[in-house]
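Below is a filled-in request sheet from our internal design queue. Each sheet records the structural input a requester submitted and the sequence that came back. We keep these sheets so that new team members can see what a complete request looks like end to end.

REQUESTER: design group, bay 2
PRIORITY: normal
MODE: inverse folding
CHAIN LENGTH: 592
BACKBONE (tokenized):
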């Protein structure tokens, strides 16, 4: 059972009260009894003295036996006590309650204690309280020696103590009841008072419980100028302080989370056990994690041994950031530069932070640049060495061979054209890429442009017996574009279609309009392009079949130029193809 403070205080009070009140009770009982006794005794003594005086005045001589008994009877009646006159020899000479024969038969009283005391004391008085065998009651006796000049006898007064004892018992009862009432009253008051004192403590306890649950709006409303008031003020102060701290922590947490959320790099925080305690959304998205990975081991979410190795060495190895390039295969192939830093607290490792910096694009660009340099040199070297070879042949005597000399010069011219084309394509590309292209955007109707390109391409098409279907409607909405660049795009696409479609194929050019954009498609029923090449054909110099393409005079720059031009125009270019069935290239341009 719970024993509240106010109950404890009340209990202690009650014990103290009980001890004090019992003491008071015993003391008062005793004192009162003594007081009453003394009063009665002194009254009895005074009465005895009065009887003595009366005897001495009225009977200076020794009164006769009969007279004495009469006087004694009278005196006994008057003062309402038993009066006995005892001779110096102890014989009972008169008694207010005994007569005649009884008196004669009364035993000798000389050795009664009060009589002895009176006879032997200087004052001539004596008293005693004892049980009277004569009348079977507790009695009080006072005795006084009488006789003018010389002692003649002893006057003894006696009183039954029964009445006095009754009074004493009554007094004791009254005293007991009042003490008991005082006890209960004081006990009740102390209960109320201690409750009153401890009630604020209860309020403080309730409030602190609420504060512990996070309700910082609760305040202790006690402002008494005492210890409880001080305690209440400290609790309020503490609550304010905690709220401030929590606010501060949650503010910095929000800041931290915002930084993490907005960070482009992936971040993973690990605890001392090497479990994930936090992962930012970017990393979760990159690793295709939908559930909160909290508490999991990194190996469960990134199936990569290198990452696990790095984590282990970061958590156990020497302090400092470690960096390593790591390839992740799932959900797509990506390359990350991972920095692992241990979190140290007072020399102990409490976890680690891993930052995943995606360098896939960078590595791809590096590769493309490397390939580009290699490709350009290769593409330039072939025509250059051809030109050199034929020129040398001519110089070495072929000039005189009129018939072949002309062929050689034509070859040199063709190769020089090829070189010039290549160089002009490269220049175009670099111009577009560096943003130096001076495009003249204006409203362009596409139907006449396509019509002219189709006418231009009609002779090579006719050579391969290819049917060209121009389905562009005359009333197609005009687009916002540079006429020259768009012509180049359409030419490139139709050129490819004609170039890669076999004998007797069909090339279709058509258009649609969607969401304020104009979409132009060039489709053919040629060989199509395999899935693995589809994403790469827009790269510079990329050709599906290098030998065949080069044979046809291609450099692999056409689609790359197309893509850049369309992007410059704020449009998009895409390709759909099925090997063996054909390809459809589509580009979109904003309406003018
Ligand atoms: N319509 C198509 N059908 C099948 N393959 C195509 C088609 N268009 C392009 N390709 C493939 O895409 C590759 C890249 O085309 P791109 O136009 O960039 O280069 P190219 O035609 O080889 O050279 P260039 O256009 O610079 O003369 C081609 O080599 C070819 O393999
Ligand atoms: Mg081409």
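RETURNED SEQUENCE:
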């Amino acid at each position: 059972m719970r024993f509240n403070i106010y109950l404890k205080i009340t209990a202690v009070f009650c014990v103290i009260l009980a001890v004090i009140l019992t003491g008071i009770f015993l003391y008062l009982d005793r004192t009162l009894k003594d007081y009453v006794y003394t009063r009665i005794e002194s009254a009895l003594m005074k009465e005895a003295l009065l009887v003595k005086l009366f005897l001495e005045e009225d009977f200076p001589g020794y009164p006769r036996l009969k007279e004495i008994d009469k006087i004694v009877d009278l005196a006994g009646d008057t003062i309402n006590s038993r009066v006995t006159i005892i001779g110096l020899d102890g014989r009972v000479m008169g008694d207010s309650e005994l007569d005649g024969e009884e008196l004669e038969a009364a035993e000798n009283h000389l050795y009664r204690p009060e009589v002895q005391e009176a006879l032997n004391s200087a004052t001539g008085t004596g008293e005693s309280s004892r049980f009277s065998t004569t009348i079977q009651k507790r009695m009080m006796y006072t005795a006084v020696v009488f006789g003018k000049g010389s002692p003649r006898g002893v006057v003894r007064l006696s009183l039954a103590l029964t009445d006095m004892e009754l009074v004493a018992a009554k007094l004791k009862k009254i005293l007991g009841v009042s003490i008991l009432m005082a006890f209960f009253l004081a006990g009740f008051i102390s209960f109320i008072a201690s409750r009153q004192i401890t009630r604020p403590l209860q309020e403080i306890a309730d409030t602190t419980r609420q504060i512990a649950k996070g309700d910082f709006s609760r305040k202790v409303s006690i402002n008494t100028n005492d210890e409880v008031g001080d305690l209440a003020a400290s609790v309020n102060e503490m609550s304010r302080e905690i709220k401030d701290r929590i606010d501060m922590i949650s503010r910095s947490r929000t800041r931290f989370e915002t930084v993490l959320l907005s960070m482009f790099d992936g971040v993973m925080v690990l605890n001392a056990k090497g479990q994930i305690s936090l992962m930012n959304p970017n990393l979760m998205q990159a690793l295709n994690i939908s559930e909160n990975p909290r508490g999991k081991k990194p190996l469960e979410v990134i199936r990569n041994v290198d990452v696990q190795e790095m984590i282990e060495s970061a958590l156990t190895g020497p302090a400092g950031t470690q960096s390593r390039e790591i390839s992740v295969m799932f959900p797509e192939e990506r390359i990350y530069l991972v920095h692992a830093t241990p979190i140290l607290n007072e020399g102990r490792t409490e976890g680690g932070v891993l930052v995943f910096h995606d360098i896939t694009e960078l590595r791809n660009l590096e590769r493309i640049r490397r390939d580009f340099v290699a490709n350009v040199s290769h593409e330039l070297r072939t025509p250059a060495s051809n030109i050199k070879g034929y020129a040398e042949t001519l110089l070495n005597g072929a000039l005189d061979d009129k018939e072949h000399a002309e062929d050689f010069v034509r070859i040199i011219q063709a190769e020089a054209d090829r070189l010039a084309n290549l160089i002009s394509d490269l220049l175009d590309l670099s111009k577009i890429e560096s943003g130096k292209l001076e495009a003249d955007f204006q409203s362009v109707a596409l139907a006449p442009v396509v019509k002219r390109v189709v006418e231009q391409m009609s002779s090579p098409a006719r050579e391969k017996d290819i049917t060209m279907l121009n389905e562009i409607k005359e009333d197609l909405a005009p687009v916002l574009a540079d006429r020259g660049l768009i012509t180049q795009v359409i030419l490139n696409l139709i050129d490819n279609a004609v170039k890669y479609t076999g004998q007797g194929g069909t090339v279709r050019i058509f258009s649609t309009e969607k969401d304020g954009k104009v979409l132009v498609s060039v489709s053919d029923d040629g060989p199509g392009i395999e899935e693995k090449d589809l994403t790469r054909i827009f790269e510079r110099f990329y050709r599906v079949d290098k030998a065949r393409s080069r044979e046809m005079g291609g450099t692999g720059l056409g689609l790359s130029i197309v893509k850049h031009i369309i992007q410059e125009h704020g449009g998009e270019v895409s390709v759909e193809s099925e090997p063996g069935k054909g390809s459809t290239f589509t580009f979109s341009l904003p309406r003018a």
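SHEET NOTES:
- The longest helix spans residues 5-58.
- DSSP finds 16 helices and 17 strands in the chain.
FILED BY: M.R.
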